[in-house]
Amino acid sequence: MADDSVRPWQYFLLGIGTFLMLGADLASAVVAKFIDGRAISDPRLWSTHWYATVGAFVCSVTIWSVWVSVLVGWSRKRGVFASLVRMQSGWKAWAVVLVGAVVLGLIGWAEARTSGGSFPSVVAEYRGFVRLYGDQGMAVTVFQYLYYLLESAMVLALLSLFQRAGEKWTRRALIPWGGIALSLSWGLAHFFTHPAGAAMLMLIALIHGAAFVLAEKSAPAVLTLVYLGFVL
After folding, report:
1. Helix axes 219-231 and 91-115, enclosed angle (nearest 10)
2. H or E stretch including 169?
């Protein structure tokens, strides 16, 4: 089998590389400050000009699109794409999405009630951008959710690579190795940027990992669920 030629540590290292590529946000912050005409040392989170914020989103989207394309090309060349994800989505996969979306919705609603924010998250973010950028708030929101779409693709890549590494190391396919690794990488990393929400994100990462296993690695279904996590 073609998958035999790829060692579990290779999948694991690609997962680590994918996680590090999520750090493109750092490059995007520099791009935003450059467009905005601010010093690199400026600590403000959001840019003064709406187009600087859009520029940051476009930077991340571009980097992540290239990386996902590299991973897809590599996996197809090595003949292991089908062992990482399935492109089919049956009723079972969409049932998992439905249940997962309800759970994520309840988590988002509870978080909004606790923090005094708005539910769903997209509404709160749109209102925030309108306060910052006025009439351009809608345009910025559209680009942010394009950014979230590519981040969702990166999360799916993390799930698939770490899941396959765990499966090959242990020969146990029903354990959500991808979700565990996602929680300890993508989720845990948010303690540095958003400590209050990091624990919740670690829980959400585990939900994504369980969904990935239950949906039998269906890429369309799991990508939809991960994206809904940002929307809700």
Report:
1. 10
2. helix 137-170
End-to-end C-alpha distance for the chain, whole angstroms: 41
Of 21-25, 160-164, 200-204, least confident by mean pLDDT is: 21-25
8 A C-beta contact, residue 200 and residue 191: no
CB atoms within 10 A of CB 189: 16
- The Cα–Cα gap between 76 and 61 comes to 22
How far apart, in Å, are the Cα atoms of 192 and each of 185, 189, 198, 199, 201? 12, 6, 9, 12, 13
Q: Over 70: is that where the pLDDT of 145 sits?
A: yes
d(CA 229, CA 183): 14
What's the Rg (C-alpha) of the chain? 18
Res 1: pLDDT: 55
Cis upstream peptide for 120 (omega within 30°): yes
Nearest Cα to Cα of residue 71 among 25, 16, 28: 16
Burial of 6 from C-beta contacts in 10 A (0-12 / 13-18 / 19+)? buried
- So what's the pLDDT on residue 219? 97
CA-wise closest residue to 217 among 103, 83, 99: 83
Contacts 24+ apart (CB under 8 A), 199-202: 200/107, 200/111
Measured CA to CA, the distance from residue 25 to residue 48 in angstroms comes to 18
pLDDT of residue 118: 84
User: DSSP state, 46?
Assistant: S
Instruction: Tell me the residue type at 81.
Output: F
